[in-house]
Fold this protein.
Amino acid sequence: MDANGVLSFSDDLVFKKKKDEVLNNNNDNGCSHLQVLEAEHQKDEEDEEEEEEEEEDNSIIINGDDPLDHPTIPGWFCEHCPQWPGQAHFLKVDKVLFQGKSAYQAMLVFQSSAYGKVFVLDGALQLTEKDECAYQEMITHLPLCSIPNPKKVLVIGGGDGGILREISRHSSIEQIDICEIDTMLIDVYKKYFPEIAVGYKDYRVNLHIIDGSAFLSSVPPGSYDAIIVDAFDPIKPDDEVVRSKLFENVAKALKEGGVLCIQAESLWFPSLDIQILISKCKQVFKGSVQYAWTIVPAYPSGVIGFLLCSTQGPKDVDFKNPINPIDSNKNFGVATQPLKFYNSEVHSAAFCLPSFAKKAKGLRSNN
C-alpha cells in the first residue's frame, strides 16, 4: 500500500493465482468464499523462491485479456458476490479461530485487525464485533418500539442470539420464541461471541430447532405482537421467501396491529429489487409497510435495509415515531451494556430516504 493508501504490488502483498489457496463455496446467495491465508505463516528459503516464480507467472494482468477472477491477498479475507459486481470486500486477518461445516452450511470465525472477531457463513460476512450493535439493535427496536406493550415475539433465524439480547431489554415481553435449524451455528456463536449469544440466557426464550416456515404453519392465528425474520441473506424477488406463503403465514400469526421486521438489503444494489419485495408485502399486510435503513460499515455498501409491516388494527402503526421508547431504559435485560447505536432520533431518521430512493415507485410511501 502506497503513501496514499492505494493497494500496490509489493513483495508481501500481491495478487496470486494458486489453486490450493482458493476455496470456492458456491451457495444460494451466489457468494464466493476465498480461503483465508495466514500472513504469519513462515516459509523456508526454497518455498520463498518457488512463490516468487509463481507470483511472477501468475500476477494479475493489468492490460491483458485474462485477468484473475478471484485474486487472493495473503493474510486477508475476501468476500465477492454477483449482487455487487466489480468489487470485493477485504478484511485483514490476524488469526483464524474456527473453520467448520455443519449439515447446513460452512462457518468461519477469525480475528480481524479492524473489526474484532468476524463470523462468516457460506462465504458471506454475517457480523463483526465492532458494528453488530447497529444491525441487532435496529432490526429489533424499530418494530418493538413502534407498538405499545409488546408481550410475545417470534424470531425466525437470528441464531447468533443478538436479537434475543436486544428483545430482553423490553420489560413488557413475556415470551420469546426463536426458530433456528442449525444447532452447530448456535454453539459456535456461544463459544466465540458470548457477548452476542448471551441472549439465549434470558429465561423468556424458547428455542425451537425447526424451520421457521414449518413452525409458523402450526402457530394459532393471532399469537404474536411482533415477528422478526433474520433468516434470508440476501432476499431477491425470485427467492422462495417471496414465492412462498411465508408472508401470509406471518400475517396470520400476528395479532391485530402486530408488526413484522425483515431484512431488505441495501438501497445501493439495484439488482436486489426492493420494490418487488415491498409490493409483495403490501398485498399481504393491510396496515403499514415502510422501508428503513441503517449504517453497518462491515456490510457491502456500508448500509442495510429493513421492511417493517403491520397487520390491520384499530389504527395504522406509525413506524416513524416510536411510541414505546427505551432510550432511558435502565433495564438491560441479559445484555451487559446499554444501547450503543439505537435511540429515538435514529429510529425516526431511519425512514428518511436519499433523493434517488424517493423516486422509486415502491418507496414513495415512505414520503
In short: The domain at 131-350 is CATH 3.40.50.150 (Rossmann fold). The radius of gyration is 22 Å. Residues 45-58 form the longest helix (14 residues).
